Amino acid sequence: MWRRCQRLFYARPPQTPRLCPTPPVAGPSLSLPGAARTYTPPTERKRFYQNVSISQGEGGFEINLDHRKLKTPQAKLFTVPSEALAIAVATEWDSQQDTIKSYTMHLTTLCNTVLDNPSQRNKDQLIRAAVKFLETDTVCYRVEEPAGLVELQKNKWDPMIEWAEKRYNVEIGSSTSILGPNIPARTKDTFTSHLASYNTWALQGIEYAIAQLKSLILSMGVIDRHIPVEKAVLLSRLEEEYQIQRWGNVEWAHDYDLYELRARTAAGTLFAHLCSESSTVKHKLLQD
Amino acid sequence: MASLGSPLRTLRSLLRELRYVSAQAGRPYRDMAAYQHLREAFRAHRITSEKLCRAQHELHFQAATYLCLLRSVREHLALHQAYHARGERSTEEAAGLVGLKLPQQPGGKGWDP
Predict the structure, then answer these.
(1) Beta bridge partners of A56
(2) CDD domains given for it (chain B) (predicted)?
(3) I need a labelling partner for A170 at 20 to 30 A (CA). Which of A150, A192, B34, B83 fits?
(4) What gap in Å lies between CA A232 and CA A151, rounded to an integer?
(5) What is the pTM of this model?
(6) Has the ipTM of the complex gone over 0.85?
């Protein structure tokens, strides 16, 4: 177990390679007859900058890679409204080693989505997409067998539904039918008006978290700081965890998905929190 | 209901993650903007009156979320590098897995590969 941990901490491939070492080929090259049909991952861009820093412009905070300003995929200037978010994005860019792996930079991806808005969604469409998840919410969909899973779902998911019903003063309920629970229109209106109170940036983060967890209730639990991200991911993957305990864990699939889900959900909620807060520090003088 | 643990533990784990990040960059982790920001934020919220502990909880939750993000990204990348980063094996390697060798055909296969 120690060796496995070491491998994970230092992010090195295992010492004894399981495959014969292959010289890296840039894409499937048709000149070599043998390599034409095998898949090689596409070569990634190399890290072309040494230092990452932050500066403040008119629109907000910008990221500088060496002396160049970071731009979105549609060539707009990358500006964020919050300094903490800018620092987090700069840390993401700083943590790239040798090559740029854009699939690890979740906060940058979210910022690009908000700035470019490639699917041209306005705020109403975002809110509608988010509330639509309630009809097929994970914690409302129950199974009827096996009995262990039914019990687990009742114990873990019912408290979440009760919390959401109490917090937002709505009715949700759960169901075992294939059509899902019958959500009254008043519930949907309540959630719509609650989500409308967030600005577009935070809403993008919330909608991303909802899409990852496949559950509006769990996402609201994390956004309202009721449960931590790890617990929300565990509740979202409850059936998978049950099957893992029954049949065993496959590291390259189960753990891979678990960490990816955790990373994305944490990125979504952090994005939402950082874009919706505004903090002021009041210094109190000591009375003496 | 958030069982986040102690803020000190979260801070120390966050600094550890930042040390991993700065190992990639090659610079000492104390120079990083994230380190300064975290230090200021934790110090600023330490001395507050106990009635306003909601801000402390919010900061702690945010720090725990950021820690989850950094840790999961690192572990996901490690798993990716270990299992999914290499492409397919070539036919020679696939045959070599079970101890076979592809036949030598000096006259060519007779059809285009």
Answers:
(1) A61
(2) Complex1_LYR_FMC1
(3) A150
(4) 18
(5) 0.83
(6) no
| Distance from C-alpha of A242 to C-alpha of A186, rounded to nearest angstrom | 34
Task: From chain B, pick out residues whose CB is under 8 angstroms from the CB of A285.
Answer: none
CB atoms within 10 A of CB A120: 7
Per-residue pLDDT tens for B37-67?
Answer: 999 888 887 755 455 567 778 889 999 999 9
Does A152 share its domain with A95?
Answer: no
Pick the last residue of a domain from A105, A139, A173.
A105
* Closest CB to A270 among B24, B34, B66: B66
Contacts of A269 in chain B (CB under 8 A): 65
Task: Please report whether residue A46 resides in a domain.
Answer: no
Strands of A35-98, DSSP E: 52-56, 61-65, 68-69, 79-80
Say which of A7, A228, A262 has its CB closest to residue B4. A228
pLDDT digit string, tens, across residues A231-267: 999 999 999 999 999 999 999 999 999 999 999 999 9
